[in-house]
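User: Can you write out an input/output pair for a complex, sequences first and structure second?

Assistant: Here is one pair. Inputs:
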Amino acid sequence: DAKTTQPPSMDCAEGRAANLPCNHSTISGNEYVYWYRQIHSQGPQYIIHGLKNNETNEMASLIITEDRKSSTLILPHATLRDTAVYYCIVIITNSGYALNFGKGTSLLVTP
Amino acid sequence: GAVVSQHPSRVICKSGTSVKIECRSLDFQATTMFWYRQFPKQSLMLMATSNEGSKATYEQGVEKDKFLINHASLTLSTLTVTSAHPEDSSFYICSATGTFGNTIYFGEGSWLTVV
């Protein structure tokens, strides 16, 4: 699976948009970009995934660059409950392979 | 999304005893389940992958005789930590995927403390 690079930490004011970047310059054509988050002492929570088109759901938006070498997860109106570690993972789906977690980005949403 | 449930959420056991953690997929058939371990302030580390009805595939450095994984049905996998020691104290998390699509879902995690 392609390696990803994320900033170790970010801050965001409550109510503002949180934009979390991820670099995956070695991504291959059949690898998807997945985002999960882990709130302290809980299991990871699925957020969103995409292949090459931008995606949006009730939690977030995923913007993938045209060359697919990077992506940005956008939380449009961050709340205090969005404070968590966010993981960007690229993987071939339905491959039977597990998600390999890097260190992720620790997002702190402040009042 | 699909629901994966773990039990117990917290367990304390004495050193030398064995403890079992269950992972259930509540609303889908889990063809593949994964077990992770997470130490404080560290990321999740994959321990093993199990397919229903098959022996688990363990990651390098994970003792298969110590961490027994059973995936006997499409909705249940168990992790048994045998002869537990204090260094086995950790947060254990399972995840599962099925035939419904591309996403892997995680359980709530189980805290194991060995005293």
